[in-house]
Structure formats: structure tokens, C-alpha cells
Amino acid sequence: xxxxxxxxxxxxxxxxxxxxxxxxxxxxxxxxxxxxxxxxxxxxxxxxxxxxxxxxxxxxxxxxxxxxxxxxxxxxxxxxxxxxxxxxxxxxxxxxxxxxxxxxxxxxxxxxxxxxxxxxxxxxxxxxxxxxxxxxxxxxxxxxxxxxxxxxxxxxxxxxxxxxxxxxxxxxxxxxxxxxxxxxxxxxxxxxxxxxxxxxxxxxxxxxxxxxxxxxxxxxxxxxxxxxxxxxxxxxxxxxxxxxxxxxxxxxxxxxxxxxxxxxxxxxxxxxxxxxxxxxxxxxxxxxxxxxxxxxxxxxxxxxxxxxxxxxxxxxxxxxxxxxxxxxxxxxxxxxxxxxxxxxx
Length: 345
Fold this sequence. Notes:
Blueprint: H1 4-20, H2 32-57, H3 62-77, E1 81-82, H4 84-98, H5 102-106, H6 116-128, H7 135-146, H8 166-180, H9 187-203, H10 209-221, H11 226-237, H12 256-270, H13 277-289, H14 319-334, E2 343-344
Parallel strand pairs: 1-2
């Protein structure tokens, strides 16, 4: 991560550039009450969808379990009420799906759909809920470690965009998983793997906002230099549209998935404060795009690989990407609220 004084200097430069371009001003603060209402409406939908998806499919997912767990954990840190029963239920489901395959994971036999992005997202979701390192997480990160390529990247094995898109996202997620669950006796090895991944991320050329967001997250997680983080952040900021949002593809309109993801990356990796003009514009876009039921609707562009079923989130055939988008939106909006003592219900 970059140092505090560098963060402030970078944020000020970004703000000046946006103000000169006609962006939001300091007189346009984020409506804190609106943010609180938005997060409070979205959280129950997201948390309830995880167990429902498992009941219907017998499996877990990045969009209905891992990302909602990450969103709930961040919201909890900011003082929002989180259903602890559902949070623990989702955590137990994730562990239960992987546990029977522990020995196979140690032998690189993927009897569970342990694609790199699935396992890494699962570990990030588990870490968000403070799941302690154990023999299961050891097996999961061991499997991820042996899948790293010689050039430092992890290859994407799931071709369903945007969650299954490209090696930049997968590499960032995998290096983060190794950081969160290092195996005793292999810390030096893992650190070298993370450094190789960072070098690959630095050399990679992102083309889409998703790639830019994960390149930035990966550089922040792997403690790249302040200059490299700022360069990546500026590339992502340059893609913000006049409406305040980001888009998955240049030909598509701004949406909650790309916008929530971009803001989260800018805040977590580059230290961009929620008071910055760019962040405020993005937050206002998210507030305006939320639907009355508390969700954000994003149209799918992935090819289906299994029969359709109702997984517990609104929007029919678009429900899974919409759940992921709603998770990113909650993370981005919750980050505008000052941390408070944890609220439970």
C-alpha cells in the first residue's frame, strides 16, 4: 500500500484534474442517509441468496457466497447490522463443499470445481468472515500455489465474463489468497510467488475496467511501489464516465458491477478517499442505479453452462451477475461510512 502522505497527494491531484474537467465539487457531498438506506436494503437480499443458491444447486459460487461475504464483512466493519446467522451459515457451506476434497486438492486432482478463480474467491470470502487457517485452507492454497505459471501469473480457467475474465483478475485473487492463508514453513516460498505475480501484473497491459481494477488490487495487495500503484489508479480513473460510472465494455453503458468494483479497488489499493470528487460521482451513480428492492440489475453477457434455476436473487437470468454487482456496490458505498462498532442482529 502507498504511504499516507503519498495517498493524500495523489488524491489531491486526481481531485484537481476532475474539477478542471467539470466533475463534482466539494459542495456536492455524498448523501450519508441515502448510503445507509441503500446498504441496509441490499444486505438482507445478498445474505439470504447464499443459502438459497446452495439449496438449489448443491454448490457454492463467487457471486452468491464469496462476494456477498466480502460485502457483509466490510459493511459490518462500518457499523451496519449484519445477519450473523446467515453469515456463519454461508461460511459453513463454503467449508463443507471443499472439505470432502481436501486430499484430492493436495494431489492436484480437482474433484471439486476448484478453478483458480473459484478457490481464490472462496478463500477471500472465508477470510472476510475470519475463518481460521486449518488443514482445509492449507490444501486449498497448496492447490493454488502449484497452479502458478512460470511467468508468475495464474491462468483463468472460467470463461464466463466478467467474473471469469482473464488472467489479471485471477492472478490478483490468487496472490491475495496466498497472503491470507500462508502455510507454516512455506512463507518464504509464498512470498516469492507473490513477488513473481506482482512482476507479472506490472508487465501486463489491461484493456478493460475489470482488468484495471484487479491489476490495481493486486499491486496494492502485493505492496508494489507508490508510483506503480498511482499509475494503475490513474489508468482506472481515466475510464470513469461523465455519469460517474464505469463500464464492463466500451460499447456498454455504465453499470453497478464495473462501478462498484472500480471504486473498491481505488479505495482499498490506492487509498482514494470517499470524499474525493471521483469517488463521490461514482457513489452517486450507484445510489441512482439501485432498484426499490435493494438490488442492482446488470445484464449477463456470459454463456450458460448449466440449466437455469432460481438462485434466490432478483432478475431471473441476470440474477448471478446482479448479485455480484450488488456486492461490489455495497462494498463501494459502505466504504463511504466511517468505521463504527460492529452491529449485530
